[in-house]
Specification:
The chain is an alpha/beta fold. The protein folds into 2 domains: 210 residues, Quinone Oxidoreductase, Chain A, domain 1 (Alpha-Beta Complex); 132 residues, NAD(P)-binding Rossmann-like Domain (Rossmann fold, 3-Layer(aba) Sandwich), CATH 3.40.50.720. It contains 10 helices and 19 strands. A hairpin with a 5-residue loop joins strand 8 and strand 9. Helix 3 crosses helix 4 and helix 3 packs across helix 9. The longest helix is centred in the middle third of the chain and has 20 residues. It starts with 6 loop residues before the first strand and ends in a 6-residue tail after the last strand. The mean pLDDT is 96. Keywords: Metal-binding, NADP, Oxidoreductase, Phosphoprotein, Zinc. Its EC number is 1.1.1.2. It catalyses: a primary alcohol + NADP(+) = an aldehyde + NADPH + H(+). It comes from Aspergillus puulaauensis.
Length: 361
């Protein structure tokens, strides 16, 4: 039972928590403000970011922390300054739970509706709100945070499916929108995992001319074609892939979170004016590559983080309309430690979702 000052959730206390050593314990949520919403969590997706933070992979974590930023549940409390949400609504929050929203009038990111790049943003866990209180995630019974970053879930999307859309889905969908993926576009997706399978399904639903799945082995080839891929490249099984497939794509989404990848070969797959978008965030530095792979075909490279609020709403509506459903495995919330151990082993096909069964009628 939630109170004003105590929630229960899975807490990581040190780097070893990434090995499945989180502890179910009480913690203090942020103070409830008139701009906040409280959600009784029914589902929370497991994301690779959870492990990076638990083991302090990207930066030292603010232990103890409760991870999880693919949160869906029932609204049980609404601040007086929140609009568009009501008690009993089914709603969710993704990887971002705060930004300045251009209140000072000079934040270019918020003014342009790409709040994920706000220099004063707050991620959903392992962060601090402007008042210094801790941001905690969704491996828990309840979540509390700003209503501005809480989204209504379309009736046609089940809660377990919606959860993984709120980070994994939008991370893959946002660059497809930005680079106008659609009819006539040849799109490649590197890495057939939680992000990559969203990229394949979304590119197919957008009507891209080709959707090419790129992986080290052909073990996921059959799955990729079921998701909508039109071609498959297995880089460890075809020593000639970088030559035979050169200049065949217009856009590449790279979901791989590894410094050990043949990035120069990947870049060479792009045709004239092609664009490479990096989505995965390795803990180590990425390998160097020759600048001539960019210069020779007027190629370009960028990175992309989740999506702004308008893109998330658009994604939810689009996925509902096109009946896009992630490939998920539901796991009881009580088994969160096993879930992250199995996730680290690469066992997920293709997203894990923790389920608070006691909160589901």
């Amino acid at each position: 039972m939630a109170t004003d000052n105590k929630f229960w959730g899975w807490l990581g206390h040190d780097r070893a928590s990434a090995n499945g050593n989180m502890v179910w314990a009480e913690y203090e949520p942020k103070p409830f403000e008139t701009t906040d919403v409280e959600i009784k969590i029914t589902h929370c997706g497991v994301c690779g970011s959870d492990l990076h933070h638990l083991r302090s992979g990207w930066r030292p974590a603010d232990y103890p922390l409760c991870v999880g930023h693919e949160i869906v549940g029932i609204v049980v409390r609404v601040g007086s300054d929140v609009s568009g949400l009501a008690l009993g609504d089914r709603a969710g929050v993704g990887a971002q739970s705060g930004a300045c929203l251009n209140q000072d009038g000079d934040c270019k990111a918020c003014a342009e509706g790409i709040e994920q790049y706000c220099p004063n943003h707050t991620i959903t866990y392992d962060a601090r709100f402007p008042d210094g209180s801790k941001a905690n995630g969704g491996y828990a019974d309840f979540w509390r945070g700003p209503g501005a970053f809480v989204f209504l879930i379309p009736d046609s999307i089940p809660s377990d499916a919606a959860a993984s859309m709120l980070c994994g889905g939008i991370t893959a969908f946002s660059p497809l929108l930005q680079h106008r993926a659609g009819p006539g576009k040849r799109v490649g997706v590197i890495g057939i995992g939680g992000l990559g399978h969203f990229g394949i399904m979304a590119a197919k639903a957008l009507g891209c001319e080709e959707v090419v799945a790129i992986s080290r082995s052909s073990s996921k080839k059959e799955d990729a074609f079921k998701m909508g891929a039109t071609r498959f490249i297995a880089t460890d099984e075809d020593s000639n892939w970088a030559t035979s497939e050169a200049c065949t794509l217009d856009l590449i989404l790279c979901t791989v979170s590894s410094a050990d990848m043949p990035i120069e070969g990947y870049m060479g797959l792009l045709d004239l004016n092609g664009h490479f978008v990096q989505l995965g965030a390795p803990e180590d530095k990425t390998p160097p590559f020759s600048m001539f792979v960019l210069l020779s075909r007027h190629r370009s490279m960028s990175g992309s983080l989740i999506g702004g609020r308008s893109q998330i709403r658009h994604m939810l509506d689009f996925f509902a309309e096109k009946n896009i459903r992630p490939w998920i495995v539901n796991i009881p919330m009580k088994d969160a430690n096993k879930a992250i151990r199995d996730f680290e082993k690469g066992a997920a096909r293709y997203r894990y979702v923790l389920v608070n069964e006691k909160h589901i009628k």
